[in-house]
Amino acid sequence: MAAQKQEKSVVWDWLTTVDHKKLGIMYLIAGTLFFVKAGVMALFMRIQLMYPEMNFLSGQTFNEFITMHGTIMLFLAATPLLFAFMNYVIPLQIGARDVAFPFVNALGFWIFFAGGLLLSMSWFFGGGPDAGWTAYVPLSSRDYAGVGLDFYVLGLQVSGIGTLISAINFLVTIINMRAPGMTMMRLPLFVWTSFISSTLILFAFTPLAAGLALLMLDRIFGAQFFIPSMGGNTVLWQHIFWIFGHPEVYILVLPAFGIISEVIPAFSRKRLFGYTAMVFATMIIAFLGFMVWAHHMFTVGMGPVANSIFAIATMTIAVPTGIKIFNWLFTMWGGKITFNTAMLFASSFVPTFVLGGVTGVMLAMAPVDYLYHDTYFVVAHFHYIIVGGIVLGLFAGLFYWYPKMFGHMLNETLGKLFFWVFYIGFHLTFFVQHLLGLMGMPRRVYTYLGDQGLDTFNFISTIGTFFMSAGVILLVINVIYSAFKGERVTVADPWDARTLEWAVPTPVPEYNFAQTPQVRSLDPLFYEKIHGDGTMKPAEPVEAIHMPNGSILPLIMSVGLFFAGFGFIMMNMENPIINPWIVAIGGLVITFGAMFVRSVKEDHGYYVPVEQVKADLKKGGN
Length: 622
Description:
- There is one protein chain.
- The chain is an all-alpha fold.
- The protein has one domain: Cytochrome c oxidase-like, subunit I domain (Cytochrome C Oxidase, Chain A).
- The chain has 19 helices and four strands.
- The protein has helices at about 10-15, 20-50, 60-95, 100-120, 150-175, 190-220, 235-270, 275-290, 305-315, 320-330, 340-365, 365-370, 375-405, 410-440, 455-485, 525-530, 555-570, 580-600, 610-620; strands at about 515-520, 535-540, 545, 605-610.
- The longest helix has about 35 residues, at about 60-95.
- The two termini are about 25 Å apart.
- The model has no long low-confidence stretch (mean pLDDT about 95).
């Protein structure tokens, strides 16, 4: 056991880190890279649809782009970007020094990243997957889809393992690592929504893993689970996928709800209205999220009884969601609102998400869904939820927590310009797509004929994507400019906020809290500002702090899973360079070998000496 932390090079430190704060930043960087990649694909697709009968992209390339855009945005961009904030903020908000299992936290990141790389490698082996992000069979069977679909199946399998173990880690952390006095009904809303989202991951990603395993067996080993001519059932895949797919929307939306529930009270200078109602509304949304999957399948012939049941369940979700909307509005009502960039994104989230919810209720009406289904109306609705909900929430969280994560502010002038350019571009892009859908334009088509009344709205939609792209470029400029010229943050709480993450110094010490805080109320930091001296009261004496050591094993295990997945994919390739079984088994040996090393190696971590802790406290630490 090392008495103190051993010094490492910067690169080695980041490759081996198990610190939740550094892993949060790594999730943020990785998610941003995938976000930009998927965004460029969306821009290219909209350019292809800017005019009738364009030849900017071929039909095959368009199919690959539309598949990869949706897959990357949901699995490799939105999820890790939310995990970035969950990793960084949750331990701080509950008064913990790290997550429950730091090693597993690092393993979750590297496995997710390995799965994303595996999926992305499809471009170098004959093209990306081309069956749509839902991978409906028989389009995704090996009779119709090439080896790119194998990268989809194995890439999502590997990435999903990382997401699943990270979610379990969050659950254990929130249940067991809360500071004294931090009861479940004193948890910040972001922690609550992250907790419930992690529960959804636990129960939704497992059926997805099972479905992907069955599809892999069909494609690689010749099984017939989804082949009708051999006794299989194509609709079975739809059920398996949407039992995951609809809760996935709430897996992403609920943490965004949590971000909004942190930002709006902070900049309205008011406690969140109806805290208890918000908690139970979140629980009800999560429960009903598993009850509505077949509203994606109204046109497959389930019958009027099944359609009616799922239609009613879908409409019911509007009730707890409406509770949240009104509570956010009541929080702002009468508040002393500061409209900085974070608050602009948070407040604009509310009406935008309402519009997405209203069109969702329209789609929930099964008879009318026959008209909407597979048209651009569905595309517009979905993006009003994903972009108008999740992405706006992510941007609000970025501007809110950026000073704590990086030690300097983002430029407010550039930030507000980014907001208006992106927000206007978003509505230009997707609002007119409602009209295109009502006019009958089908989605997932790479071109259309002229003189059908579709030209103008498609042109406007494409112009909107240029605005959104310009907005993202402004954000990148803001990040670079602020890194060199931005206002440095030397105080713990630049926003005069309410929760525990603003009680620790900036930059955050490796151990977060020199002394575990004693929580006395909801909004604990604000409570101490009103009823105390503005600092958290300690729940323990000053002692040496035990911290976990870094480890290279998570990276090694992710490399092993990468090669195992690639080996299975090679079984469907023509003339593979090396025996696929050697690659697949070799990858599994690397993975389980690293697990064995971890199990037999004693890793007691290191101690931050009590003298250093006391010195940090004298400097103003908490």
